[in-house]
Structures are given as C-alpha cells and as structure tokens.
C-alpha cells in the first residue's frame, strides 16, 4: 500500500558516518573469503562439518602445508576483524563510551583488545599445559577452539552487512540471533574440551581448571560486566 507521497510505509534507515568504510572492510573480507573458497573449497566445507564431527576437525589440524597454513592464518585475521567490527557496532547501538570519539580509532581500540585478549588466552592455555605437562592436549584443544572461531568469523559477514542497514528496531533481533549462534559454538567448544579431556584421561582437577577457570568464568564475568 502506497502513501500519498508515493512512498512505501516504513521506518527510515538512519545514516551513520562509519557505515561506508565499515561496509568497505566487510566487502573486502568477503571478496578474500570467496577467493580462498575458490582455491580450496574442501577446507571451508570441513570447517562447517567440524562443528558436529571431531574427526573432521582433526583432519583440518593434521593438514600441514603452505596453502592450508596461509588460509588458517588469514581466517584468524578475518575473525579478529569481523569480531571487532561486530563489537564496534554493538558499542554504537547501545551507546557505550569509548576513550575516543573518532570511529576509526574506536575500531582500532576494539581490534587491539580482541586480538590481544584471544592471543593472551592462548598463551595462558599453553603455559598451563606446559606447567602441567599437558601441552600437547592443550595444543589440540586450542586448535579446535580456533577452528570454531574461524567459523564464527565467517558467519559474522552477513550479520555485519545487515547490521549496517537494518532499522534500529530490528537490529536487536539480529543481535540476539548471533548471541544464540555464539552460545551454541561456545557450548560445542566446551563439549569438545570434555571429549579431549576424557580421551586423554585427564584428572577432574585439570578439567575444572581448564574449562571452568579459563572458559566459563571469563565469559560469566563478561556477561556480568555488560549487564551492569
């Protein structure tokens, strides 16, 4: 049904200064992902299958060549960038305060925090694995963890595009959808950690230390901080 002025009824999309360059970054990432998919489609299908199949994940981890290593490192970077952009858009949506009023500087701050935080956790995992003489097991678990991160980074691409141009009233549904996806992948990660722990006959103390202290507790603290 048309309005009197010849336009369809609906809510106008508010333009923000950051939309154009965020769109450019997302599209460049999408072009790169499509190129890598064309080069090695089996790698991407395995990433998707790895959610439900530990054997497939082990195949990804065991495959060690220059092409696979390049795609692995590149998709890690895609994950950091897309996660940073998603958090940046959440900051704008919920109007959180950041140290700078410059949008690009805000993204750089978020990117540094995301990249530093994830790599710090990897180092902590590997250090604890070295101290407890379980470094090989920790390397296996963190490899599974990073594969799930790659998948989430890829899944963020359509969400970022929608987040840029959906009316504000509909963005909350998109946010909830991706929270559900992240929660599901986080649950898969915990379950995979339990699988690896039981297969390697780790003690109950080690399982609690690794999964509760280093996984569940930080996420709980983050949720509490965001809710406050």
Number of helices: 8
Described by the principal axes of the CA atoms, the overall outline is: globular
Alpha carbon gyration radius: 20 Å
List how many beta strands DSSP finds.
0
The arrangement of helices and strands along the chain is: HHHHHHHH
Compute the average pLDDT. Answer: 82
Counting helices, strands and paired strands, the structural category is: mainly alpha
Major sheet characteristics: none
Q: Tell me the span between the first and last alpha carbons.
A: 44 Å
Helix content: over 70%
**Quaternary structure state of the chains depicted:** single chain
* % residues in beta strands: under 5%
What features would you describe in this structure?
The structure is a single chain. With 228 residues, the protein is an all-alpha fold. Helix content is 81%, strand content 0%. It is built from 8 helices and no strands.
Break the fold down into its secondary structure elements and pairings.
Elements (H helix, E strand, L loop, with lengths): L18 H21 L1 H9 L4 H9 L3 H29 L8 H29 L3 H31 L2 H32 L4 H24 L1
Helix pairs in contact: 1-2, 1-4, 1-6, 2-3, 4-5, 4-6, 5-6, 6-7
Quick rundown:
The protein is mainly α and 228 residues long. The chain has eight helices and no strands.
For the structure shown, list the relevant keywords:
228 residues; mainly alpha; 8 helices; 81% helix
